[in-house]
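Risk mitigation, structural track. In case the binding assays with uridine-5'-diphosphate-xylopyranose fail to produce interpretable data, a predicted complex structure has been prepared as a fallback.
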Amino acid sequence: MQLTVIGSGYVGTTIAACFAAFGHEVTAIDIDEEIVEAINNGQAPISEPGLEDLLETHVGNRLEATTSYDAVPESDVTFLAIGTPSNDDGSIDLGALGAAAEATGAALADKDERHLVVIKSTVTPPSITDVLEPAIREGADNNDAIEVGMNPEFLREGSAVADFQNPDKLVVGTNSEWASQRLHDVFEPVLETETPVVDTDPQTASMIKYANNAFLASKISLVNDLGNICKEFGLDAYEVMDAIGLDNRISEQFLRSGVGWGGSCFPKDVNAIIAAAREEAYDPAVLKAAVEINDRQPERMLELLESHVDLEDARIAVLGLAFKPRTDDIRNSRAIPMIERLKERGTEIVAYDPVAIEPMQERFPNIEYASSAADALAGADGTVIVTGWDEFATLDEELDAMATPVVVDGRRIVDPRPRITYEGLTW
Ligand code: UDX
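Fallback model:
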């Protein structure tokens, strides 16, 4: 099939490369000339295992990038994969996606054959019918050959290519048998592996994405709430969670309690669905609590640290800046509130991450950054472990080099040992 993918960010680039690997002819369209050039040179604009290999294999053959929408009417299906950032009130900003939707419509104004436009971006159910579909139709001069569908994406950062190629499920949100069949055809290689398919309408498809992320984020917040109670009782939350994970209805996944969830999806999506619910005059109590517990975890770590060190005069090493290991992404990383709260207390901060120092330097230019965990720890009065990088598990004499060896672990990555005052956040 011939496919066009509008937007070459995290999701857009990954799906364009993977569609080419499925055997489709793909045109990736982005307004940013640098991104287009990078893709055409076989370079991935984001760092994801396997992505660059796919680009190198398929660029110049089944995949090309461009700034022009000319390929849209020539293609069978167009995917919209443009970011939906948060407004100040938590609702999603549809500005860039709306503009791309209108431009896609305009490119299709004169097309006679039926054309399917699929929204890949995460958008709330009402925004499909109230904003995006009207934008496409207006751009297209109400050409009724266009159909709009929704195909939410569940890939995770760090395993984007593998997740896309082997998903747990495929959600196909369309308004007609024809549109559904088109999407089944696009995903034929995935369907051959007997991946379950949920065929539904576009709005339900979009709600499935929010429900999925809201459920996982709330699961971690519930585990953190229970974990905080365990800590108050002097118990180990991991022992408790390992046991409840044996109940098939709970499952052992996403039970790691600690400093909480971050990244580009969970915080944005939970806030967006809360804001969209409030628009309907519904106040979602559990989701609000999930956010509140998540906001509380960095402060709880500092309270534990404060029970051993006076933070006003202390030098504290913040270990881990990325929102999770194996990425340099700091979006909504728990390290951000951690640094903010330490700054409020007048603490001297020295921060370290194996790959995410540069983006954090843009966010906090005035704190000190160390080039290794050992350098960060040397002479420090305490440390907070914010990201579960493997290399923190092997810290040993580096911990002895602290002025006062106090470790508050937010990811259960450092082993407690003699000579060190060790506090697990929920254990
Ligand atoms: C998530 C969803 O998993 C994915 O389906 C969706 O498409 C995008 O959002 P991602 O943001 O890449 O993916 O990260 P994920 O690996 O799910 O972790 C999210 C956050 O939860 C991280 O900050 C992680 O540290 C935290 N987490 C995860 C926990 O604190 N405990 C856990 O048990 C699991």
